[in-house]
């Protein structure tokens, strides 16, 4: 029996494999979350130097693979046994092996969330194109959420490929028809673009960034335009609740920006798993005599 037949015949095997892959990819997502913004910053500085006519500064290569992982405090090179998802963090008790500086709890959290959501997607959708596509979608949203929380950036290096992948998967009607996916991408971008300009004309301030437009466009490309109202409603409600809580409980100033990307990602995840059910329930509720 081939591996594909095993995965089709024994769903628990596919779920366990997805969980393991989620752990491993979660470890890589931590690298993306930490390094991609720094790579973008280096690129911006290089472009500014070039445009200003300055001499380019030669820097050591820095990307997702080079240099190897190291402790940011003492530059201790992290070995393979120190880089096992979740397990190494527990064995090291959340501290660097060399200097004993604290390691952020976010590293094992990202790995754990990636593993659990990947396993849940495998259970929910089963083995096949839709299950594999859903897992890719989840990984991208995890990376975007954490990067936005850290830097209030939603990198084009993730949002734009995510948009095109959504259209590509929907060539075979994976989550929506291709026409609904294309309309979803267009509407997702234009809805937040319109909100941005209305807010700016009314207040003179920017209420959100262009990355939010692209993320909602990507979600529309994956799930179709029919899911956009639900995604916007869910993300707006959660965002409003969190924002008010921060202002009241934490005394966070009203002028301090709150990233909207994590709420869009959360709305997109809910719509991915339960969007059809929630939409149908809503329509039945208001159509009942």
Describe this structure in words.
With 289 residues, the protein is mainly alpha-helical. The chain has 10 helices and no strands. The chain has helices at 3-9, 11-51, 87-91, 106-125, 129-151, 156-169, 178-203, 210-223, 228-249, 261-287. The longest helix has 41 residues, at 11-51. The protein is globular and about 65 Å long. It starts with a helix and ends with a helix. 33% of the residues are buried.
The string of secondary-structure elements, in order, is HHHHHHHHHH
Number of continuous helical runs: 10
Overall body shape: globular
* Uncertain spans: none
Secondary-structure content class:
mainly alpha
Briefly, what is this?
This protein is an all-alpha fold and 289 residues long. It has ten helices and no strands.
Question: How is the topology of this model organized?
Answer:
Blueprint (H helix, E strand, L loop, with lengths): L2 H7 L1 H41 L35 H5 L14 H20 L3 H23 L4 H14 L8 H26 L6 H14 L4 H22 L11 H27 L2
Question: Which descriptors apply to this entry?
Answer:
10 helices; 69% helix; globular; 289 residues; mainly alpha
């Amino acid at each position: 029996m081939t591996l594909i037949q095993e995965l089709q015949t024994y769903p628990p095997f596919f779920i366990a494999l997805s969980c393991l892959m989620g752990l491993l990819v979660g470890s890589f997502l931590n690298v993306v979350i930490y390094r991609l913004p720094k790579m973008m910053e280096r690129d911006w500085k290089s472009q500014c130097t070039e445009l200003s006519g300055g001499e380019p500064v030669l820097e050591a290569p820095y990307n997702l693979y080079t240099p190897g992982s190291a402790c940011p405090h003492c530059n201790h090179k992290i070995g393979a046994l120190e880089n096992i998802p979740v397990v190494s963090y527990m064995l090291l008790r959340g501290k660097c092996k060399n200097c004993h500086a604290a390691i952020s709890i976010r590293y094992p959290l990202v790995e754990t969330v990636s593993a659990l959501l990947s396993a849940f997607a495998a259970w929910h959708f089963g083995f096949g194109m839709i299950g594999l596509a859903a897992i890719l979608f989840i990984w991208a949203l995890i990376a975007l959420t954490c990067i936005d929380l850290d830097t209030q950036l939603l990198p084009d290096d993730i949002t734009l490929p995510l948009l095109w992948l959504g259209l590509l998967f929907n060539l075979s009607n994976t989550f929506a028809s291709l026409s609904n996916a294309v309309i979803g991408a267009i509407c997702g971008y234009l809805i937040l673009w319109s909100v941005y300009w209305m807010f700016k004309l009314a207040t003179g301030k920017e209420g959100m960034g262009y990355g939010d437009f692209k993320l909602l466009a990507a979600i529309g490309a994956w799930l179709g335009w029919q899911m956009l109202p639900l995604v916007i409603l869910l993300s707006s409600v959660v965002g409003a609740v969190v924002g008010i809580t921060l202002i009241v409980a934490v005394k966070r100033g009203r002028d301090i920006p709150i990233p909207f990307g994590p709420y869009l990602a959360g709305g997109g995840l809910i719509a991915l798993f339960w969007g059809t059910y929630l939409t149908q329930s809503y329509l039945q509720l208001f159509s009942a005599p």
